Amino acid sequence: MKIIHEQRIEELRSEFDERGIDALFVTHVPHVAYLTGFSGSSAMLVLTRTAAHFITDGRYAEQARQEITASGMTIHIEREWWAYIQEKQLPEGATTIGFEASHISVAGAETMQRTVEGRSWKAITGMVEAVVMVKTREEVDCIKSAAAIATKVYDHVLRVAKVGMTENDIAAEVAYVAKKLGSEGEGFETIVASGVRGALPHGRASNKAIRQGELVTLDFGCRVGGFYSDVTRTFALGEPAMFDRAIFALVLLANETGIAAAQGGINVATLDAAAREIIKDAGYGDDFAHGLGHGLGREVHEKPSVSYRFPDDIAPVGAVITIEPGIYLAERCGVRIEDDVWLTETGCEVLTGAIPKHLIVVE
Ligand SMILES: [Mn+2]
């Protein structure tokens, strides 16, 4: 991993001229992790053309020394980062400093610019994102391990689910089993949306009891080595209505069509359209009210956003993205089916392929 951290830093430096900067402050902690391997929750990086300074506080001193292996990286342990940077006159020799405009508060940026004196500033967006979008095999192996846990969790849910259980009961099983199987954390609150609540794309589990014949949409994340899997499956408790089955079949076809179209270098709006067309053609275009997917890695939602909203964006070879079409029908039902895929030159590797996605009817 040492090599990849150094490569990513070199890639960032190679864009300094184009961006009009001669130093970069990386303040988004997941980005710091992608560039250094550091797994703690508080750190920043100061990059110049020739130097790399990693700054964390005393809680992480030992961890930083263990985890940071990139050569040429100086570790600093300090609590008041801006004052320290000013005192040490970092970044050495830089006149224009780029900072991650999407990852610093207005108050934080004001303090930074007031404390670090005598430099000019440039708000930077999307620069680190573009570099860390491309995942290494080791990183993808972590997502695969997280997906393997998800496979077992879903199998467990199908074995214990029964009519009369609440959505919270299901969410509790997911949390318990995932943790027992080695998941480091959930990443987001587990979504369990049954029956009419299925119409809420982000319906957090509630105290609603699940009734006979209802569809249940389960969306949950597991984490291994700092990397997430993000999976949605829809199953039925007892035989569902023919109509619900038809909606399910449509979403499954859209999911499979999206996966078949997924390929490194594809325009995200084109990929979104491939799956969306299936749902649109059937007359449910307005009921699929979100993008097809999103990048996945150290964060549950990363770039690229796989959506019609970003017609200029490309999903590069090496990106891990989700493919998650859904149909949400108010006062009726909802279905979403989500897989995680790693984009290659010729197509994609499905990382969640072991998790059954045909309509399972739990009796
Ligand atoms: Mn997702």
Molecular structure report:
The strands form six sheets. This protein has a six-stranded mixed β-sheet. It has a four-stranded mixed β-sheet with strand order 7-8-9-19. 35% of the residues lie in helices and 25% in strands. The protein contains eleven helices and 19 strands. The chain starts with a helix and ends with a strand. The longest helix is centred in the middle third of the chain and has 24 residues, at 137-160. It folds into two domains: 2-132, Creatinase/prolidase N-terminal domain (Creatine Amidinohydrolase, Chain A, domain 1), CATH 3.40.350; 137-362, Creatine Amidinohydrolase (Alpha-Beta Complex), CATH 3.90.230.10. With 363 residues, it is an alpha+beta fold. The protein is elongated, with a radius of gyration of 22 Å. Helix 8 crosses helix 9 (167-180) and helix 10 (242-261) runs antiparallel to helix 11. The site of manganese (II) ion has 4 residues, from loops.
Low-confidence stretches: none
Bound molecules: manganese (II) ion
CATH class of the largest domain: Alpha Beta
CATH fold category name of the largest domain: Creatine Amidinohydrolase
- Through-space gap between termini: 47 Å
Strand order of the largest sheet: 4-3-2-1-5-6
